[in-house]
Amino acid sequence: TWASVKMGPPDAILGITEAFKKDQYEQKINLGVGAYRDDAGLPVVLPSVIEAEERLLKSCLDKEYAGITGISNFTKLAADLAYGEESIVLKEDRLAVTQTISGTGALRIGGEFLKKFHPSTKILLPQPSWANHAAVFRSSGLQPETYRYYNKETIGLDFEGLIEDLKNAEDGTAVLLHACAHNPTGVDPTPDQWKQISEVVKAKGHFPFFDMAYQGFASGSIERDAFAVRYFVEQGHQIALCQSFAKNMGLYGERVGAFSLVAESSEEKARIESQFKILVRPLYSNPPIHGARIASTILGDAQLKAQWLAEVKTMADRMITMRQLLKDNLEALGSTQNWDHVTSQIGMFCYTGLSGEQVDELAQKWSVYCTRDGRISIAGITSGNVKRLAQAIHEVSK
Ligand code: PMP
């Protein structure tokens, strides 16, 4: 029956993990991982998450199904976190929201909703973007295209290219925007550039579709990382928003996320939510409950939330420190190249500017593994390996 099924191509990132595992060298470094590691290189379960789980265990909740759009206390608290408790759309009860299978599920529900109800089925993605974006939207029946984003020469934002492409796109096109900590480049627009993007999006009647997978995890501040989302809402844009609690709560495998749409009125919100249910029901019926309970236990308790915020900041600060250490070490080794982008970029990923050949050399000669686009995961850097890493990068980039 399946004789005609062809072998699919391997996942680029998983390939790196394989190669890393095979390498026998003791001081090998894996910079391909998309999850946070502490300074000893180990995965982290946040103390606030452990505390929330202990409370949940003691409260002996049953395991009955959540509603189709999830646990309502969770979706309310997730919306508060993203939009701000004082947000006009929350006060006016015009945010349609559903719990999702983490950020990927939010993107998929958003994609399905657009396919069904948005007049244009085109969606513009930054070039480059998280590799799964195009796959998710294509699977939803949309046509992903790209807008210029990254400038190889400056290892920074191609702001003129971005604005030009948004201006040249057909009016009313959906545009995917990374709310903060752009993956894979680590390059974000400045607040002033966001304001200009908002103006163009408004003038063109484009539909701003935000993916916020790193709120708090980028800068260490929930508010700062939500700047673009909240600014667009203040400017009257009816945005779409995908949220993930994978990174900022370290709930990766628990699959905790939310998808929301700003509606014009409370009545419109109700109609949209009824359609969320119609989309979700045949896909997975209703979302998992454990992770959403953890998140709402944390967000719903002032003391536990404060503890969590401090923990998020610790993670963000560690990455900011590792960026600085990497740059300092490269300079101390006498590298004459400009490494300013290492510290000006933000989040878990850094586009080093290394070529595919240089990346191959890193793996072969130094047992340092990262993707061939030169993206390194800052989470894989520790105070113990940063010196050797800098040496390796310096040697291959001389
Ligand atoms: N969007 C972006 C930009 C991401 O980097 C990721 C995770 N790497 C996601 C969405 C989704 O992740 P998850 O489904 O684990 O929440």
UniProtKB/TrEMBL annotation:
Keyword field contains Transferase: yes
Q: Name one GO molecular function term.
A: L-aspartate:2-oxoglutarate aminotransferase activity
Residues annotated as domain Aminotransferase class I/classII large: 27-393
Task: Show the PROSITE patterns listed in the entry.
Answer: AA_TRANSFER_CLASS_1
Q: Name one GO cellular component term.
A: mitochondrion
What is the catalytic activity of this protein?
L-aspartate + 2-oxoglutarate = oxaloacetate + L-glutamate
Please, which domain of life does this record's source organism belong to?
Answer: Eukaryota
Show the Pfam families listed in the entry: Aminotran_1_2 (PF00155)
Cofactor list: pyridoxal 5'-phosphate
Listed under GO biological process in this entry are: L-aspartate catabolic process
Q: Where is the signal peptide?
A: none
| EC number(s) given by UniProt | 2.6.1.1
Keywords of the record, alphabetical order, are: Aminotransferase, Pyridoxal phosphate, Transferase
Regarding protein family, the annotation reads: Belongs to the class-I pyridoxal-phosphate-dependent aminotransferase family.
Query: What quaternary arrangement does the UniProt entry report?
Result: Homodimer.
Other remarks?
In eukaryotes there are cytoplasmic, mitochondrial and chloroplastic isozymes.
Indicate what this protein is called per its UniProt record: Aspartate aminotransferase
